[in-house]
Amino acid sequence: MACFLASAFLLALQTFAAPQAGVSLNRIDLNTDEDAALSPPPGTSKRPPHSIIIGVRKGGTRALLEMLDIHPEVAAAATEVHFFDWDENYAKGLEWYRDLMPYSYPHQITVEKTPGYFTSTLAPERICTMNSSMKLLLILRDPAERVVSDYTQVYFNRLENHKPVQAIENLLVRNGALNTRYKAIQRSLYDIHMQNWLRHFPLEQIHIVDGDLLIHDPLPELQKVERFLNLPPRILASNFYFNQTKGFYCIRSDGRERCLHESKGRPHPVVNGTVLQQLRSYLQEHNRTFFRYRGCMFDDIPWHSKGGRLPAPRHPAPGRRIRTCLLIFTAL
């Protein structure tokens, strides 16, 4: 009933919030003028997404989307739209949202990704309103490593904008105790955010991608996603090659090679070992609530003894598994 009432409200909202070509969004600049000037391929149309990558931020969402885009039956949205988590965008209505999707053929599925959806309190109900059968993709990684990666992104962004920066320890610790209000830590409380999603979607509509495995060995994780989305197997080991310079896998498709943006894979800072242990201890219970594992756990990943630096990743040939990790969600 909640989805139905919200759906009626949203349809009414569309009438008063029609999209305007060429208007810059408040926090996102999508070039709608250029899209309108291009003639769409015959037989294509813009459709709402069939699947959404909902997060998690710094979990590998961009890598997942670009790797999925290899598949000939996937049409990937180029930009994070922030429709379901930003009120000012949601108020513009579903037609505005649909117009930001790529052109696709009838046999293709459209995939959108906005990492902010996972931690949004509003996004689950709003997506359910649009399509209660939506297939959701959630890519997760070691939550402590994700916190450090989150800090690293903000750190470099502030440097580029000539803003002051702080050492990560000053953000992780306040008055001698772990600063659990720090947003980067809050985003790594996977169990709390998942509770909100399970109020609106059954677990069988949420596929969890292991972000650590996707980095080390992309193919097996992508094959699972293909099966979840009922796509024929088209992504191959030959679509990936390890770039020794960048330190991660790049994509080979349609006769060309491409890697993720240079902002991806930035080196993490050395974190004080005591502070790092405080962080991992705090996250441990949340991990246990969220997952039961066979073969691995987030908090079992080793750390170097000096300074708490993350271990160097291993790089097997594509298609060769490092480890088997069965993720089973426990009842909350």
Summarize the structure in words.
- By secondary structure, this protein is of the alpha/beta class.
- The chain is built from 13 helices and 14 strands.
- The chain is 36% helix and 16% strand.
- Helix 1 packs across helix 6.
Annotation keywords:
332 residues; disordered C terminus; five-stranded parallel sheet; three-stranded antiparallel sheet; 16% strand; alpha/beta
Tell me the layout of helices and strands:
Blueprint: H1 2-16, H2 32-37, E1 45-46, E2 51-55, H3 61-68, E3 74-76, H4 87-90, H5 94-99, E4 103-104, E5 109-113, H6 123-130, E6 135-140, H7 143-160, H8 168-172, E7 173-174, E8 177-178, H9 183-187, H10 190-198, E9 206-210, H11 211-216, H12 218-228, E10 240-243, E11 248-253, E12 256-258, H13 273-290, E13 291-294, E14 326-329
Parallel strand pairs: 2-5, 2-6, 3-5, 6-9
Antiparallel strand pairs: 1-4, 7-8, 10-11, 11-12, 13-14
